[in-house]
Write a structure and sequence with these properties.
The structure is a single chain. This protein is mostly helical. It is 56% helix and 5% strand. It is built from 17 helices and eight strands. The strands form four sheets. A two-stranded parallel sheet has the order 1-8. Strands 2-7 form a two-stranded parallel ribbon. A two-stranded antiparallel ribbon has the order 3-4. It is elongated.
């Protein structure tokens, strides 16, 4: 094989060492390059206005091949200074020719070109590609996070809607809606104990087993079965009240309650010795008070001639007086509380119904849990009797005649009522009525949910915008990479051609390029 046909393969990482080892370029070129860079900087201060020059020098580090292109352009712009022997009198041309001469001395241009080429292959091009990959990954991650936020957003919206549904409001005007929904509490209570009558057998069984009378055994549950959800007053006094004065409902929605003026204020008049007093808006006149410090007589207005007190009743013979006992007492505003079923006025906590009273509601719930525990224990005992044939006769006598199936039915009735009186809507409305701060807590919770949803939506939009921005940055690097790759390939071609001329035009291959 002919030597000219043998290619020269040089790996990019060893290119500079290869040139130095063949003594094509010197080992240290930094001092020479520094001098050349200084002259290039000076020459750039005086350049003609030319489109090709502007495009050539735009954003590019000038190397040996750029200098040769500048000289070709100056041959056109400085042709008027060309002498008879082909030399130019222009200082611009001389400066750039000097720069090219310094480049070609000791093949500095080839060493610099190899240096730029290796740096592009090993660092510049991979760095741009890595940056593009990173931007693409960040864009995808931002978009993925934006999509993932849809799940907590939907969850919060569902929780918000569920809470509104549990309370029974729309969330538009909470104060009015809370007040309106509380009016339906009596119907909710009535519905929750609709099946309380099914506990009759369970109560009788518990009373018989515990040795109590029917009225002593779980009295609140028995009362609800017989009379329904009456007032606490009726439960305590065993009679219905004439009227009910339930405490007002207080809903605090981040507002301070104004102190209400007391209409029952007592006015003792002025301090000028006047004798009139006003109590609850009614004037009482004591007449003129004449109190003598040393006397023993107290004058209450005009008296009779005999010193008697005039009570404003005309004197008449006693034997002619007729007393009318048929005048109705209602005319005088007097209310007599009877001892029978007439009742009185239910006020304060006694005005609440049993299920609406915090104390009695809790006691009723405790009774249901007590009955539930009893039934569960009876079911367990019955299963033990059925499983053990050698059970004691005394234990057999203590087991009720009810079978396990009937006990389970009683137990399911108790559990159903417990579920009804403890459901979410009843619990919310009960707290809303009896806890002034609960309305504010509910309103704050609903508001926080809405704020959380708005924050998630804002974050989603920010992530989407970020994803688009990163994609744009990624696309903006495409021309940068293309230009860098083109420059690197051009330098590779220049280096291969230069080395090929030095070795009888043999084929030169730079391996590991872009």
């Amino acid at each position: 094989m002919n030597e000219a046909d043998i290619p020269i393969d040089i790996h990019t990482l060893k290119l500079q060492d290869w040139l130095v080892s063949r003594r094509i370029v010197p080992k240290n070129i930094q001092a020479n390059l520094k001098d050349i860079r200084s002259k290039i900087t000076s020459a750039l201060m005086d350049m003609p206005s030319h489109e090709k020059l502007i495009e050539l020098l735009k954003g590019t580090n000038i190397n040996y091949y750029h200098c040769k292109e500048i000289i070709e352009i100056l041959k056109q712009t400085e042709k008027d200074t060309k002498g008879l022997f082909g030399s130019y009198g222009s200082k611009r041309m001389k400066d750039w020719q000097e720069i090219v001469r310094l480049y070609e001395k000791d093949n500095i241009y080839l060493a610099e070109t190899a240096q730029i080429y290796v740096r592009n292959v090993n660092y510049e091009v991979p760095n741009v590609r890595k940056q593009m990959t990173k931007l693409e990954q960040q864009s995808d991650e931002s978009l993925k996070r934006s999509i993932d936020l849809a799940k907590p957003e939907a969850q919060l919206l569902n929780e918000h809607a569920a809470l509104l549904q549990q309370i029974g409001v729309k969330g538009e005007n909470l104060r009015e809606e809370f007040t309106q929904v509380l009016l339906g509490l009596p119907d909710i209570y009535a519905k929750s104990i609709k099946k309380v009558g099914t506990l009759d057998q369970a109560l009788d069984l518990y009373a018989t087993t515990s040795g109590q009378t029917k009225q002593q055994c779980l009295p609140i549950t028995r009362h609800l079965m017989e009379l329904g959800n009456t007032t606490v007053y009726q439960y305590i006094h065993k009679e219905a009240p004439l009227s009910v004065e339930e405490p007002p409902i207080k809903l605090n929605l981040s507002q301070e309650h104004e102190a209400k003026s007391n209409d029952n204020e007592i006015d003792f008049g002025d301090d000028n010795g006047g004798a009139s007093s006003t109590i609850s808006g009614e004037m009482i006149d004591f007449g003129e008070l004449n109190l003598e410090s040393g006397g023993e007589t107290i004058d209450f207005g005009d008296t009779g001639e005999g010193g008697d007190i005039d009570w404003g009743i005309e004197s008449s013979p006693t034997e002619n007086v007729e007393v009318n006992f048929d005048i109705p007492i209602e005319e005088y505003g007097i209310v007599v509380e009877g001892a029978g079923m007439d009742g009185g006025v239910a006020k304060g906590d006694q005005a609440y119904t049993i299920l609406d009273s915090p104390n009695y509601r809790e006691r009723f719930t405790d009774e249901l849990y007590e009955l539930e525990a009893f039934l569960r224990m009876r079911c367990y005992e019955l299963r033990q009797v059925n499983a053990n044939s050698n059970v004691m006769f005394s234990l057999m006598e203590s087991i009720s005649t009810h079978d396990e199936e009937s006990l389970k039915k009683m137990l399911s009735n108790v559990e159903a009522i417990l579920s009804e009186i403890s459901n979410e809507q009843t619990r919310h409305l009960f707290q809303l009525k009896h806890s002034p701060k609960y309305a504010d807590l509910l309103a704050s919770k609903l508001k926080q949910m809405i704020k959380a949803v708005e924050k998630i939506r804002l974050t989603k939009q920010v992530l989407k915008d970020r994803s688009v921005e990163l994609k744009e940055q990624r696309l903006a690097l495409n021309p940068v990479l293309e230009e860098l790759v083109a420059q690197t390939k051009n330098l590779q071609t220049k280096i291969e051609q230069d080395i090929s001329k030095r070795y009888k035009n043999r084929v030169v291959n730079l391996l590991g390029g872009v």
